[in-house]
Task: structure prediction
Amino acid sequence: MSASLLRIWTIARNTLTEVLRQRVLNVIFLFGLILLGGSTFFTQFSIKEQDEIKFLLNLGYAAISLTGLLVALMGTAQLIPAEIERRTIYTVLSKAVRRFEFIAGKYFGLLALLTLMVLVMSGLFYLLLLVKEPSWIYEISHGASTLTERQMREIQAVQQQIHDPHLIQVLLLIWAKLALVAVIALFFSTLATSTIFIVATTMLVYLVGHLQGTARDFWMASKTFTGWRADALGLLSTLVPDFGAFNIVDEILGGNKVPWEYVSQTLLYTGIYSLVLLGISALIFEDREL
Amino acid sequence: MKFRLLALGVLLVWGFIKMPWESALDAEQRKLTLGATGQVTMEMRDKLGQGLTLAALGGFRGLAATAVWLLLHNAWEDGDWAWLRTYAELGVLLQPRDTYFWENASWHLAYNASIGMQNDAKDLTPDERRKESRRWVDEGIKMLQRGIQANPEKGILYERLAELYQQRLGDYRKAAHYYELAAECPDGAKYLPRFAGYMLLKAGDDQQAYEYWKKIWPKLSAQERSSSQWGRVRQEIKKLEEKLNLPRQDRILMN
Result:
């Protein structure tokens, strides 16, 4: 057991080193940083300081999410096909490494990259907010030593928005969503060798997963889906994860309080889903002829 | 092959296990967002363009709303009020639980579009301009009322509606009513109860203003009562007590 964990750990570590060296991922990460920095440009369209923060929060977290999505897609899609193409997979699997250890190691390596990316980007984003905080406060107070009630309230609102501990929920949910996208991409990479195919199918599952709630609404409201169509919709629901659960991020960014129970339920759902899909990927990979 | 079949079996079994869980999460999310998630998503499909729908349904609603707001800003600069209204509608559709979009959409309609119509619609007669200007104020009011329906617990929207009645229509009774509602919200600012009273005074409802202070005054702490802001209210109460010629035992302030 411990030897198996050690092998998974070794593969994960090597995968992390390997993906950190990939130019494509570095370019995506750079693009994410530019997006994050560029978000300050859009704040000129806002009227009040609180509006500026609103724009920054929306754009900043969208930048983290979008960059993470691209990294999860491109990074995972290349994991196994690249090993097969370079024929390094034969060397690894000819050693005392089981196939499921290889799959798990690869996944956890990429998950480490995603974690690192989310941490670095959110850290930089928080720093950006901290740098801008004094100027926002100055804009509200106009440098006055005594403040009106309204000014005090506005300053308090600005500080609350920047240091809102609920923003951790946003990061956790973004990270969980990325972990789920990565495991879906890994699942497809055990079935196919084409990177484009893996990226396209994962993207489709991602979109369908977001549409699940809407489809369910439409289906329930219109009552036009009966018979085989209803069955097909039901089957689709069993196969595709419900990404709509992560939409609660908008509620948090809108300044609304979301209980930790909901967030932890979503994280637990993602965790179990990822493990199940990881297991399924390992099973398929066991059967695969290399 | 046997592993593949096993994988398919696991996937299906997990699928049936996860479905009730997903439904429960979905129901909880609807409860937390006061039903904003489902309905709006349905409406979105019809009103948003392809790109924005894709962004919104791909989990980037905030980003789509920000993009819409940039377009709204351009429409505002161009004085294109029809497009401004369209973008305002899209913004609140995408982020119905974010008060920022409701209050700013309403501000653009009731202030910018309304005043713009009053000053710049050279092709209209003065009477038509007045009517058009008023119509935009009403649009702003409707926008805030819808915002309140989607966010009944947010004090800021009641406050903005009160300001709108006060500043744009001079309807101080309604302003007082909404300031009072704003003050009752958990996030209502401390100055709001004072504002509600002042509005009643401005409306000329001395008796009602006095009744209102009478209701509020006992709830204040000693520190609040001695503050300069509430000191002004104390003066107003004293004036009212004299003006209404109230018997001593019915007065809030005995001395």
Remarks:
- The longest helix of chain B spans residues 2-32.
- Chain B has a mean pLDDT of 87.
- Chain B touches chain A through 51 residues (CB under 8 Å).
